[in-house]
Amino acid sequence: MRSTDVVIRDVAIDYQDYAYRTPIKFGGVVLDKVTLLNVTMTVEGATGRHASGFGSMPLGNLWAWPSRQLTYDQTLAAMKYIAGRLVGLFRLSGLYGHPIDIIEELEPRYSLPAEDYVRLARLNEPVPRLAVLVVASAFDAALHDAYGKLHGLNCYHTYTRDFLHNDLSHYLGEEFAGEWLEQYVRREPQPVMPLYHLVGALDPLTPAEVRQPVGDGLPEHLGEWILRDGLTHLKIKLNGDQLEWDVERVVAVEAVATEAQRQRGVQQWYYSLDFNERCPHVDYLLEFLRRLQEKAPQAYERIQYIEQPTARDLEAHPDNKMHAAARLKPVVIDESLTDLESLHLAREMGYTGVAFKACKGQSATLLLAAAAQKYGLFRCVQDLTCPGASLIQSAGLAAHIPGVAAIEANSRQYVPAANRGWDERFPGVFTIRDGVMHTGLLTGPGLGAVPPEN
Fold it and tell me: What is the pTM (predicted TM-score) of this model?
């Protein structure tokens, strides 16, 4: 035991529900609401001093558990049950250590409440590992936050050998012997980062497409968003099973972006493409890229990377190798990335990049980010339409992981109500100008996200 180690003394959870400002369509489904899981965790240090940390995460059940048999409410209920059980697991663990080591010890036990719920509810399918990780991520975040606050430090100052017990070989294998996490994580955040604005499949691109204006003062269509926020990075949601529509959607976005950027006097901007695993096979992606390059060569050149285009279960679809597509553009693993083994499998299948998400856990994300850097993979940080504290955490990861191309922040578009109270305190994070997020603000103790008072 080190003098810097902590033990968990108390854990409490609560939920917040929000309706979306406008619906978002991804993976063939439409989402118009969100439930946030909030975790408050108290730790005790070696001297007997206590500190409380806060973690929050959208439960994102439609993304984490895209069931064909169960309803939204059923999968949400399962994830809430798991959250309730994790309260006891963390509170009674009795483990002393650094957050990364405590999480390493507890993570194999996350599956137990999921398995129990399947039996209790008599479900015909298991709870996906990704859904379990999303629930656990709020607890993980609260632990890191409490640890940093106990020591009066920003979390990213505690990922050094002065605080950690083990070098990276303990977590990632012998090829990392003698290497420490501090070599792969910035101590201070990158001052500013480009923001990827989401263009959902239902989002209006032009004034003519605005059928029912929201009328809340925020932009109503893509052109307005680009001009108001000075956007230079657009993430385009595609269907993955309608080739002509997918091509035309990017062509249409290119036309709107070209006119808006002309008004701004901007000549360089970028796209990422997200098929949400809907492409039936890699040949669909290759044909899409071929047609897009033929029809809109400038739009094709603007593509910075492509998010996981085919099914998330890599072992079940070994034929969906990405080597040919990745020779054209970086192809990043997203939904499939749940541990080190999945990262190795993705590399074998031709993926050349990694999309990190705070909803998979602060601890695991930091370790996998080290592996991705060592393997020379393209790196980006994606978001689960994270508001409030979860956006602060996600932005912190993006700003501290070297080589991350840009950051997402979709809550300002779809659930701005959940950012009230936060945007006044972190204006450069929750309010975007000139297309960038001011991540240099994120230097406070812990994860830096102290919830505003009600």
Answer: 0.96
